[in-house]
Specification:
Layout: H1 8-59, E1 66-68, E2 84-87, H2 88-91, H3 99-104, H4 117-120, E3 139-143, E4 148-152, E5 154-155, E6 157-162, E7 201-205, E8 212-213, E9 221-223, E10 237-238, E11 244-246, E12 277-282, E13 287-291, H5 296-302
Parallel strand pairs: 6-11
Antiparallel strand pairs: 1-2, 3-4, 3-9, 5-8, 6-7, 7-12, 9-10, 12-13
Length: about 325
């Protein structure tokens, strides 16, 4: 019986057709995947927004950007960071259905204490945007010499400290310089957000440039860029940028404003894994996708809580 088989030419034609179909379908599949990731990211931030409001309901204020006893003898002489270091993400654990994890924490001890090594190294999914590339399960917290000071769970979300970068000053009280809602030892209430909760950024995304954490700030730590070749303008920054970001204009940076995903972004600004912009959480609990093409002055206005800027809802 004669057997019929594909000729080499027919096989090549089939391969070519399949290749063309894959080239057509792959971008569509990637767009669908990115849309789903962006939605998941927005949902993460909405949950965190509800947690922020629940915390405010219990304590009459929002959680601090991070806690620091800047009068402690062990404080960092350059930044005045001290114990306990716990950040906004750690304070929200109980409001994010992470009671078991919160119960493991020895809150009276520094976040870098060996007694807190296990809970501090926990990967918490709600703090991770699925579009963020290469997120480590654990972030080694290092000093300028590369020594590991602690191992923390990662986060791709950071809190908005406002325009300035107060960690560049050797001062204790950041209140005169931090015009955002969350900063070191902040105790901001609803009433203190005079620009309006719906037009003030509380949290936003940070990925790609450097690694962040939900846990806290370790005195003497530095935050280096992941790829100095890709981001040559970004240098290692202070430990506060493990959990905080600023928008500019900052006097120490020649008053440059850094919208999300801007090519001039540093480890201390917002940068996402999404193309064209980043999700941010506003103080009223809503989430907006901010385009990287946003007007710079509008972005700066969104990042201050009490600047008196007039903003419409179509930013």
């Amino acid at each position: 019986m004669e057997r019929r088989a594909f000729s080499l030419m027919e096989l090549l034609v089939v391969i070519a057709v399949i290749s063309v179909l894959m080239a057509i379908l792959l971008p569509a599949v990637q767009k669908v995947r990115e849309a789903a990731n962006k939605m998941t990211c927005a949902n993460n931030l909405r949950q965190t927004g509800l947690a922020l409001h629940a915390y405010h309901g219990d304590y009459g204020r929002f959680p601090p950007g991070y806690e620091s006893d800047w009068t402690h003898p062990s404080r960092d002489p350059l930044t005045w960071d001290g114990p306990t270091g716990w950040a906004w993400g750690a304070h929200l654990l109980r409001y994010l259905e992470q009671d078991g994890l919160a119960n493991q924490v020895q809150w009276h001890l520094p976040c870098w204490s060996s007694a807190n090594a296990v809970p501090a190294a926990t990967f918490v999914k709600v703090f991770i945007c699925p579009s963020a590339p290469d997120v480590p399960r654990i972030v080694p917290i290092r000093d300028a010499s590369g020594n590991v000071l602690a191992n923390f769970g990662p986060s791709t979300y950071v809190a908005n400290v406002g325009h300035e970068e107060p960690w560049s000053r050797a001062i204790g009280d950041w209140t005169p310089f931090a015009n955002g809602p969350l900063y070191r030892n902040s105790r901001v209430r609803f009433a203190d957000v005079r620009d309006g909760l719906g037009t003030t950024v509380f949290l936003g995304e940070h990925a790609v440039i450097s690694d962040k954490t939900w846990v806290g700030v370790v005195p003497g730590a530095v935050v280096p860029p992941r790829d100095p070749g890709r981001f040559p303008l970004s240098q290692p920054d202070a430990a506060a940028t493990l959990v905080l970001a600023h928008s500019g204009p900052a006097s120490s940076e020649l008053d440059i404003i850094h919208p999300p995903n801007a090519p001039t972004c540093h480890v201390c600004q917002m940068y996402s894994g999404h193309p064209s912009g980043a999700n941010v959480l506003l103080g009223d609990g809503s989430v907006r996708f901010i385009l990287e093409s946003i007007n710079h002055d509008v972005w700066a206005a969104l990042c201050s809580r009490n600047g008196g800027e007039a903003l419409s809802d179509d930013f």
